Amino acid sequence: MSATTADGALRALTDRLGGRIAYGGDYNPEQWPRETWREDARLMQEAGVNLVTVGVFSWAWVEPAPGEWDFSGLDEVLDLLHAHGIAVDLATATASPPPWFATRHPEAMPVTAEGVRLSHGSRQGFCPSSPVYAEAAARLVERIAERYRDHPAVVLWHVHNEWGNHNAHCFCDTSAEAFRDWLRERYGTLDGLNHAWGTAFWSQRYGAWEEVLPPRATPAIGNPTQQLDHWRFSSDALLACHRREVEVLRRLSPDTPLTTNLMGTLEKKVDGFAFARETDFVSVDHYLTAADPEGHIGLSFDADLARGMGGGAPWLLMEHSTSAVNWQPRNIAKTPGQMRRNSLAHLARGADGIMYFQWRQSRAGAEKWHSAMLPHGGTDTKTWRETAALGAELQALAEVRGTRVRADVALLFDWEAWWALELDARPSVDVRYLDLVRAWYAALWSSGTACDIVHPGADLSGYRLVLVPSQYLVADAHAEALERYVAGGGHAAVGFFSGLVDVHDHVRPGGYPGAYREMLGLRTDEFHPLRAGESVRLDDGSAATVWTEAVELRGAEQVLAFAKGEEGGPVPGGPAVTRHAHGDGTAWYVATRPDRDGLARILRRICGEAGVAPVAEVPEGVEAVRRTGPGAGYLFLINHTGADARVPARGIDVVRGTPVDGTAVVPAGDVLVVREDPAAG
Ligand code: GLA
């Protein structure tokens, strides 16, 4: 998928929805009697729903016994939806093999690292490398595609559902065989594998391919590169499943676009960038972490990542929740207005469709305590009223469709770096990938600065500033690309414990931080991670946690130091933040984890030097995002605070049609979308 193709495919889809923003959710009619379907279709119309995802868990409904097909229910539902003007994102239904599948093919069920074979009775019960699953799934996708490719309701194919959400890592014998094939392909010879895995260590040398296994439970720390390769292999094995479905759909239904709902940072095991390339446009699911008072910043991160996975093109929010979920330790309901803020924040960051899990709240099964658009209480509920109101509001916002968010800052995100960083036996368990990238992002978010979240292999030339909060593992080519970007006049900021290992998780020799030493103009001799809960002070008074290190300047200048004396921690007076002129550009290093305000100050200075300006001057807790198109700019102002906010803006309030004359007043908890005067932005 190229960004231009994605623009086109999603545009064509929303054109088929009458030029509207897509609005709807997962619809699971098999859970309900026929009478309810009719009520559903009527209420969907009432709520402004124009697209629903059908069939995600319908395998047992359409193939109740092996090779026995019954599409009568699905036929009726699709006809009914079409008659009500509701389009369908039709799932391939491969996400939940029925009990007959597991009973017939117990060998196709996934096995844990400890050797436990999992049982049916849940969902996603299959080993990603299983040939019998591949065959059964391909047959199912063929049947569905053949039957519904010309159905007028079907505007989109929904491949599988959340690849790898539950079954990504399998350790069975079939997976072992597939892992060996994958390794043969990667390394060619056993010598190559022995070198990459560093098997000279602890007498792990492999003399025959049959000896090579997935990283099953071991007495002591397992081989790190074996583990890393298993993460890679597992993501690729799922990608192979994805490709098989895509092949069938392209062959039988070439004119209907396809996507698969990715999970962004909610799924560590699946490399979202790799899957995104093999869809017609990106779609993602996002669920707020209810316990996190700054969950809305996490939401922004994932929305920016969704845009980054699609090369900047608009994308589809395939699932989020109207209120509480059911799978967090404490499932907190959304406060009045919070769902709208969440949904419009996704829209602000480039979504052209807002969908939920699920349309009607289940009465039975594992997700009956998960909120839905139509709750147990029916239409006389807060959630229903908010759902219907948002449906109407999105109609008024249709004109933002197709516009794009433009950012001067790129933040590098990489699943491989995440996997490698969090393997066993590292300097500190407190060095966690999402914690670091989110901390940098949050500091930038609070200043109202737009940011694209992109893969290290992305074209960086259009950005004024590249942030690299954490990149323990970096491929040579990616390290060189960043170096060239800086030497050519770019600005980059790199976080601690980055650049250290190559793609085999082998340490780059000559001192830390490995690949970035020259560019940063410094060398670190030894790391000094902090104790749990320990905090040190920097010489600007801010606090920092998790990490310190002994940085020796070799051309870089010190911008901030660890405080002198005891409060400076293990390296009192040593450099904590540095700046280095490299070629025509500048490279910064942050050798600790400063608190929010400290990091925000550092990033403000870096942005200032790089010529990066915020989208708008906003009070703390107010989010400002701009989408721009050929003729217009749309400033989204989202007030996450309990106080009214005033933000400089000029234009028309798109929903209310009223003028905004220099100052937008955004009431507490409210959202305003301003079509800006052409001169603005
Ligand atoms: C995922 C799945 C859905 C549902 C939701 C619940 O996103 O795709 O089927 O289970 O989680 O939050």
Q: Which features characterize this protein?
A:
681 residues, alpha/beta, TIM Barrel, Rossmann fold, Immunoglobulin-like, 3 domains, nine-stranded parallel beta sheet, seven-stranded mixed beta sheet, 27 strands, binds alpha-D-galactopyranose
Share of helix, binned: 25-40%
- Form type: globular
**Low-confidence spans: pLDDT under 50, at least 5 residues?**
none
According to CATH, the homologous superfamily of the largest domain is Glycosidases
CATH fold-level assignment of the largest domain: TIM Barrel
The bound ligands are: alpha-D-galactopyranose
N-to-C CA distance: 29 Å
Question: Would you report the number of β strands?
Answer: 27
- Provide a count of the helices: 18
Query: What is the CATH C level class of the largest domain, in words?
Result: Alpha Beta
Mean pLDDT: 97
Strand order of the largest sheet: 5-4-3-2-1-9-8-7-6
State the secondary-structure class: alpha/beta
Strand content: 15-25%
* Largest sheet properties: 9 strands, parallel
